[in-house]
Structure formats: structure tokens, C-alpha cells
């Protein structure tokens, strides 16, 4: 697999995660990168340069490298990847379309949601093995082209965990499905300065890395992923005392040789991302603007096209016997004049005492009027 592409996906993933607020989240830079790379090849300036910079790829090579990446991923034992393109029956294609938007199968869009959406959802379900069942895209007559990627990962631990219900206090207060296992692979734990990285090996070709520390933990973990032999291995840490790395204490075992006990909660996290809310981060600013009759993708069609939707659905589950994840990322092109604008709005929340009245429209005659002193009590359904 192209090392430059791996680095670009790694950088995109880290940049994306660091841009998000606090709280549980999951993203797939791997699912997004091929779409950005293809768009870089397909776009006119200035969007071409913006997309190429976001994907860290030469624009002329983006489409080719994206297809190569999808093909390489699909050769994995545990990972399935797919790329799809659907084009409106009403869209006139440029002669260069097949060169800039290559895809194994190009489907057609009728512009009717009742016809198109089930087809796109079925593709999503098939290529995520049912983990995600709906493609995150709104279909209407203005949608001229949909470009999508799908990823599905299922791996089984080489050494499974035991599971128990554990009651925790503080920030983790509540009952958790807690996972624990013990083995002798000391070097599955490594310290990279102020970061601890634990490798949980799958039984095929996927491992899951867990990072614990301070500062930019995600960035550090992604950096460590590319340097698996660096850092201080557990076989050296075992010679210390006390806390020898973040979250790693020296304890005692009844085993005949040193071992590692790993404890953590099982977890499931899913996220929906509207990529246009961070258009600049992904190089989408120019290609989402309305340039009038010119459009942004003349290599795709002489019609004035712009990106009107860009979304990702992604989930990840870590449990006693394995790990699974899926992501579907979509870009929808609309006629440039129809691009959805994200304007400011007023959010009004009546979560404090308020009055109400019903009046006749013309005479303003009040019919009923009242006062809600406790909105939460008023909101209860009457028996």
C-alpha cells in the first residue's frame, strides 16, 4: 500500500478528530479520503487545489490512488471496502467522466427518493454487512450525482476477554460491562513519552490500539501506529516500580513468569458527521460555493455542479470477543444554483415560565389564554 497515502489518511484522521469537541466520538478518515482524492481530480480551480491540499495528494493522481486504495483494502481478511457512483438520468456527462470518476459500478438516479433511496440503502447494508443500513444522503430531483464509500471491519481477538458487570464511581459512575484478560505478551504495552499504547491483536490482519496519556492522545496514538517498534516496550517497563507509564502500574502475579493484565469497559460509539459544517477542514469551501453558470466540475459534466451534501455515518464496537466498525461517507452534487446554504438561525427554547393565548386572526379576539409556570410538568402526557 502506498506509504504516502497511508500518511495522508493518518494526517486527515488526526486533524479531523482534533477539530471535534469533547465527548465520545468516532470518525473514519479512511472512508473520507478516497472521496476527497477523487474530487480533487475532478474539480476545477480553486476547488482542485483546496481538495488536493486537504487530501495531501497531487490532484492529477487522486482518482487513481483512491481506487487503488479501495482495492487494496478489500484484499484484507477482516476489512471490506467499496466505492459507488450514481448519476442522474438528467445529467449530461463530460467525455472525461470515466477518467476522473472511476468506479466499479456506476448506477443511475431517477431523482425520485422512493425509487433511489432504497437502492442506495441496500448498497449501504450490503457493503457494511448490515452494521449501517441507511446511506446518509437526501435524494431529490436536484441531486445530480452521489459518490460514496463504505467500509466494514470485523475482527476476532487472538485472545478473548472475560466479561463481568462492574459498578464504578466518579466520572465512570454506573454499571459497566467490564472486560479483562491476562497474557504474557509484555510488549503489547509500550510507552511513548507521556503516552501508553496497548495493542490488542486480532486473529487475522487487524489490531486495535488503545492510547492513554495526556495532551494530544489521538495524535500521539496515530503517530505511534506508524512506529510500532519504537517507544519503551513492556519487557523493559516491567523492571520499574510504581506507575511506569500512564495507566500502567507494577503489580504482582501468581504466574510463573511476568504477565500483562488488561482491563477496560466494553464500548460502542456511533457518530453522524455533516462534513459541510467544517468545509474548510476538508477542502470543500470552494466547491460548495455557488459560482453561477460555470460550476466546479467541468470534467464531470458541462452542467454547473457543486457539492450540496457531504456526510458520514460511522460506528465502532469493542467487546469481549472482538471488534467491529463500519463507515459510510457520501458526497452529493447538485446543480450549483441549488446548493444548500447554512445560514444563521434563532433557536427559541421555552424551558422557563411562559404565557400563551389563542386569538382570532383578523379581530385579535382572544379565545383562550394561559400561563405555563412549569414547562416540564406541562409537557407530561395526560393519563
TrEMBL record:
InterPro entries: Serpin_dom, Serpin_fam, Serpin_sf, Serpin_sf_1. SMART domains: SERPIN. One of its GO terms (molecular function) is serine-type endopeptidase inhibitor activity. Pfam families: Serpin. Residues 10-375 form the Serpin domain. GO terms for cellular component: extracellular space. Belongs to the serpin family. This is Proteinase inhibitor I4 serpin. It comes from Kribbella albertanoniae.
Amino acid at each position: 500500500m502506498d506509504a504516502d497515502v497511508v500518511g495522508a489518511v493518518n494526517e486527515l484522521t488526526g486533524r479531523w478528530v482534533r477539530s471535534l469537541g469533547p465527548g465520545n466520538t468516532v470518525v473514519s478518515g479512511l472512508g473520507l479520503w478516497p472521496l476527497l482524492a477523487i474530487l480533487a481530480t475532478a474539480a476545477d480551480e480553486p476547488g482542485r487545489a483546496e481538495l488536493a491540499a486537504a487530501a495531501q495528494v497531487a490532484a492529477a493522481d487522486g482518482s487513481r490512488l483512491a481506487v487503488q486504495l479501495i482495492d487494496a483494502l478489500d484484499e484484507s481478511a477482516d476489512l471490506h471496502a467499496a466505492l459507488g457512483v450514481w448519476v442522474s438520468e438528467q445529467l449530461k456527462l463530460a467525455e472525461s467522466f470515466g477518467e476522473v470518476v472511476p468506479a466499479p459500478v456506476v448506477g443511475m438516479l431517477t431523482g425520485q427518493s422512493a425509487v433511489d433511496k432504497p437502492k442506495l440503502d441496500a448498497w449501504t447494508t450490503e457493503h457494511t454487512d448490515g452494521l449501517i443500513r441507511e446511506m446518509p444522503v437526501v435524494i431529490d430531483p436536484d441531486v445530480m450525482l452521489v459518490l460514496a464509500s463504505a467500509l466494514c471491519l470485523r475482527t476476532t481477538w487472538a485472545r478473548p476477554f472475560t466479561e463481568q458487570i462492574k459498578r464504578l464511581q466518579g466520572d465512570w459512575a454506573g454499571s459497566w460491562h467490564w472486560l479483562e484478560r491476562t497474557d504474557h505478551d509484555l510488549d503489547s504495552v509500550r510507552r511513548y513519552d507521556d503516552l501508553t499504547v496497548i495493542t490488542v491483536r486480532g486473529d487475522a490482519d487487524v489490531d486495535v490500539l488503545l492510547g492513554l496519556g495526556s495532551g494530544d492522545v489521538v495524535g500521539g496514538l496515530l503517530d505511534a501506529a506508524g512506529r510500532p517498534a519504537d517507544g519503551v516496550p513492556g519487557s523493559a517497563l516491567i523492571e520499574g516500580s510504581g506507575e511506569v507509564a500512564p495507566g500502567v502500574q507494577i503489580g504482582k502475579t501468581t504466574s510463573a513468569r511476568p504477565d500483562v493484565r488488561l482491563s477496560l469497559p466494553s464500548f460502542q460509539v456511533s457518530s453522524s458527521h455533516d462534513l459541510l459544517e467544517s468545509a474548510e477542514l476538508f477542502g470543500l469551501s470552494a466547491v460548495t460555493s455557488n459560482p453561477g453558470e460555470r460550476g466546479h466540475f467541468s470534467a464531470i459534466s458541462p452542467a454547473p455542479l457543486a457539492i450540496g451534501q457531504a456526510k458520514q455515518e460511522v460506528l465502532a464496537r469493542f467487546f469481549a470477543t472482538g471488534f467491529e466498525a463500519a463507515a459510510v461517507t457520501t458526497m452529493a452534487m447538485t446543480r450549483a444554483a441549488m446548493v444548500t446554504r447554512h445560514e444563521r438561525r434563532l433557536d427559541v427554547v421555552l424551558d422557563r415560565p411562559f404565557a400563551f393565548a389563542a386569538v382570532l386572526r383578523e379581530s385579535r379576539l382572544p379565545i383562550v389564554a394561559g400561563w405555563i409556570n412549569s414547562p416540564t410538568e406541562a409537557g407530561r402526557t395526560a393519563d
